[in-house]
Design goal:
By secondary structure, this protein is an alpha/beta fold. 43% of the residues lie in helices and 16% in strands. The protein has one domain (2-220, 245-287): Rossmann fold (3-Layer(aba) Sandwich). The protein has helices at 11-19, 38-48, 62-65, 69-90, 123-138, 163-172, 190-202, 220-231, 242-245, 260-266, 273-287; strands spanning 2-6, 24-27, 52-55, 93-99, 142-147, 150-151, 177-180, 184-185, 188-189, 208-211, 218-219, 237-240. Strand 1, helix 1 and strand 2 form a beta-alpha-beta unit. Bound molecules: NADP nicotinamide-adenine-dinucleotide phosphate. NADP nicotinamide-adenine-dinucleotide phosphate binds at residues 6-7, 9-12, 30, 33-36, 56-60, 75, 79, 97, 99, 128, 147-150, 158-160.
Length: 288
């Protein structure tokens, strides 16, 4: 299978690169393929004629997006649309990676299925939802995969990092750490999400929308506590509320996704978040 991955220097792209290593693979960084550059997108996808494009590229700085609205929509909605049109023209299947942040404004407090109506609370979530709609409108052969709280080994060295690395850095620096305890979600290892993308493609699953996260649910405070316990660290850490923490962007208090559709279609379970975190910490420790 000819596979093209956008956002090649990111966490998920790195692990997709491992999973699809045996295929005819092109993992393209932003410098090699800027999804906002319509001409480049058409040229690269038109020339390679991939069977599958997995688009991970995104403007992911959730708080900055509140002030960089045009740029956030240009990448997450406009860029997604460019890739979708080029895929449709080339007859490629598009896997578009999206987010639990398309939710948050809903009242439902139990795992959200794909039938739950999106209600983003912030610019990032709205722009990613715009990207989903562009993909649906422009590329019939698509999978849209919403996931949550991603962390992967590429986050150890990348500019954007991830929550686990931030917690480890603060703890090792001896800093007092306060973490929100009222946002319920399921942090997900990109290693597991990358495998799930492969399982959806090879099933092959019907096209459409899928929620895919590790199994179970937690809060960022409980997640941080598990990180410290597994890493053998004992920082001073306290729970706080979203209101007191006061991040620039509003965030969902509940965005646990139900991966039931994925499990039914592929016949595969997703590992619990606790196992995924332990595996991630072992892998990053082995990296030195
Ligand atoms: N991180 C999360 O918690 C989370 C949760 C749910 C869903 N998601 C979604 O999952 C996907 C992967 O996330 P991730 O954590 O792997 O992100 P990541 O590590 O930050 O990687 C995103 C990559 O996109 C690239 N990029 C940004 N603008 C681009 C453009 N115009 N053209 C091409 N590439 C561009 C970035 O390049 P530079 O390095 O040059 O900036 C970066 O390498 C994204 O679509 C994100 O929205 C993420």
């Amino acid at each position: 299978m000819r596979v093209l991955i956008t956002g090649g220097r990111g966490q998920l792209a790195h692990d997709l690169g491992q999973v699809f290593a045996d295929h005819d693979l092109r993992l393209l960084s932003r410098a090699q393929l800027d999804i906002c550059n319509d001409e480049q997108v058409r040229e690269v996808i038109g020339a390679m004629r991939p069977d599958v494009v997995i688009s991970t590229a995104a403007f992911v700085r959730v708080d900055d997006a509140e002030d960089e609205i045009a740029q956030s929509f240009a990448v997450n909605a406009g860029g997604a649309g460019q890739v979708a049109r080029a895929c449709a023209d080339a007859g490629a299947t598009l896997v578009q990676i999206s987010t639990d942040y398309v939710y948050g404004g809903q009242l439902q407090q139990e795992p959200l299925t794909e039938a739950a109506l999106p209600a983003p609370l912030n610019v990032y979530g709205a722009s990613k939802l715009g990207g989903e709609y562009a993909v649906r409108a422009l590329c019939p052969r698509h999978y849209i995969i919403r996931s949550c709280g991603l962390y992967g080994v590429a986050g150890v060295t990348s500019r954007n990092g991830n929550f686990v690395q931030t917690m480890l850095r603060l703890a090792r620096a001896g800093r007092f750490i306060s973490v929100v305890n009222d946002q319920h979600c399921t942090p997900t290892a990109t290693a597991d999400l990358a495998q799930a993308v492969c399982h959806l493609l090879t099933a092959p699953a019907p096209f459409g929308l899928y929620h895919v996260t590790n199994a179970g649910e937690t809060t960022w405070y409980e997640f941080a506590q598990r990180i410290f316990a597994l890493a053998g660290l004992s920082p001073e850490v306290a729970p706080t509320s979203t209101a007191v923490f006061g991040a620039r962007a509003r965030r969902p208090l509940y965005s646990v996704l139900s991966s039931e559709r994925y499990v039914q279609v592929t016949g595969r379970d997703l590992p619990p978040w606790e196992d995924a975190l332990a595996r991630y910490l072992r892998a990053t420790e082995a990296m030195g």
